[in-house]
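PROTEIN DESIGN WORKSHEET
SECTION A - STRUCTURE
LENGTH: 260
TOKENS:
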């Protein structure tokens, strides 16, 4: 029903008033080990290594957004035309970058992917490069949003979950949980990164509703029947919904077509 998939606050933004293809300039360094990113602030754990082909990134606080930016995808390319391709690569944010010299620290695999064929070792020798980047939609090939029950959960008194395969160009900013068939919703809190929790766990099978924003736009997503009555710690469950919204980002300097 439309009520359950309604807009929370949906402003129609014209292309003249907002820019969804803003290009930013920064420097990017790399971690020699992807495990440093998989154990990062977003809480994805070792499963992060399998995300996005291992092209992972730690993002500065303004992009990390207190965890709301976890799972965001960015296309970046280095500006050294001798070493680097025009396509660059796409990275996924899995950690918080506290280095104030760069907007991102990426996995070595992502760093090398920016190079022209046969020049991956040459770009690694630089250690840090000038890049331009923009946020892009995450594409999980029509895979539904998934909910993983974290090991810290203690049934029936405490539930911690993590969202995986969040598509589009969006951020989850609110989560409620209720027993399937009930309208008695309890809010969940962001524990850290992509992990949400509550100590008010409804009995029985569980449904979720999410407040999802895309730039200026926001709406509810309703996942009707996600966790079974006998939900298990460590298992991942299909939400039955896909998030594909594209963000509208207001900015002073936008892609003028040079990123081609």
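SECTION B - SEQUENCE
RESIDUE ASSIGNMENT:
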């Amino acid at each position: 029903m439309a009520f359950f998939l309604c807009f929370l606050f949906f402003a129609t933004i014209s292309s003249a008033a907002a820019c969804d293809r803003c290009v930013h300039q920064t420097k990017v360094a790399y971690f020699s080990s992807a495990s440093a990113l998989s154990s990062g602030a977003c809480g994805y754990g070792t499963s992060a290594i399998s995300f996005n082909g291992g092209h992972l990134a730690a993002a500065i606080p303004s992009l990390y957004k207190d965890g709301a930016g976890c799972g965001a995808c960015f296309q970046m390319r280095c500006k050294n035309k001798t070493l680097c391709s025009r396509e660059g690569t796409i990275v996924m944010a899995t950690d918080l970058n506290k280095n104030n010299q760069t907007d991102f620290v990426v996995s070595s695999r992502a760093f090398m992917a920016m190079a022209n064929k046969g020049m991956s070792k040459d770009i690694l020798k630089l250690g840090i490069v000038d890049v331009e980047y923009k946020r892009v939609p995450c594409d999980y090939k029509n895979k539904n949003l998934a909910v993983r029950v974290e090991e810290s959960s203690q049934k029936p008194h405490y539930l911690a979950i993590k969202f995986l395969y969040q598509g589009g160009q969006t951020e989850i900013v609110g989560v409620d949980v209720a027993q399937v068939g009930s309208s008695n919703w309890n809010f969940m809190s962001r524990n850290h990164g992509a992990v949400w929790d509550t100590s008010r766990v409804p009995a029985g099978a569980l449904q979720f509703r999410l407040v999802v924003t895309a730039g200026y736009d926001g709406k509810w997503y309703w996942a009707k029947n996600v966790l079974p009555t006998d939900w298990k710690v460590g298992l991942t469950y299909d939400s039955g919904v896909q998030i594909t919204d594209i963000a509208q980002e207001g900015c002073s300097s936008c892609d003028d077509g040079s990123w081609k």
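SECTION C - NOTES
Helices lie at 35-38, 61-64, 108-113, 120-126.
DSSP finds four helices and 15 strands in the chain.
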